[in-house]
Amino acid sequence: MIGNFLHVAIGVKNIEESVGFYTRVMGMELDYRAHHKGEFPSRISGVENADLDVCVLKKGQVRIELVDYANKNSSSGPVKQNQTGLVHICFLVTDIEHEYEKISALGYRFNSPPLQSRENGPTVCYFHGPDDVTIELYQPVQSA
Question: Which domains does the chain have, with CATH numbers?
Fold first, then answer.
């Protein structure tokens, strides 16, 4: 039997910069950090001569695992929403306009300002965080 969802892993360019972003900007908390090197992590990951730092961050029941390989294979540019693979991660917010203004002021680029996704639907917007990860902010419809 498959159990509960555990985490999403993101390959990062600079683990300190990414940890700072997810803790300071997105309000996540450090769960644990580790360094792995040698034959065992190479076997598990399929990466020859694996040498990596791992940091798991949490917010509620959600966990993001940041992985920084010393011998990384980098690509550039955010994944487009119509491509296969991880296209975005999403955070619930209570005041999307406030978060939009705060994150924009930090220099992160949004696709658009917050928009209502459909009639009587949630308000959403997407921006590009570190490591070209697209992040969605999602504010549910407020009950009257």
Answer: 8-69 (3.10.180.10), 89-139 (3.10.180.10)
CB atoms within 10 A of CB 64: 20
DSSP symbols for the chain: -------EEEE-S-HHHHHHIIIIIT--EEEEEEEEESHHHHHHH--TT-EEEEEEEEETTEEEEEEEETT-----SPPPTTSSS---EEEE-S-HHHHHHHHHHTTPEESSS-EE-STT--EEEEEE-GGG-EEEEEEPPPP-
Predicted confidence pLDDT, tens digits, the chain (144 residues): 767 878 888 989 899 999 999 999 999 999 999 999 988 888 888 888 889 999 999 999 999 999 998 887 766 667 666 666 777 899 999 999 999 999 999 999 999 999 988 888 899 999 999 988 999 999 998 765
Question: CA-to-CA distance for 9 and 65, rounded, in angstroms?
Answer: 4
DSSP string, 9-28: EEE-S-HHHHHHIIIIIT--
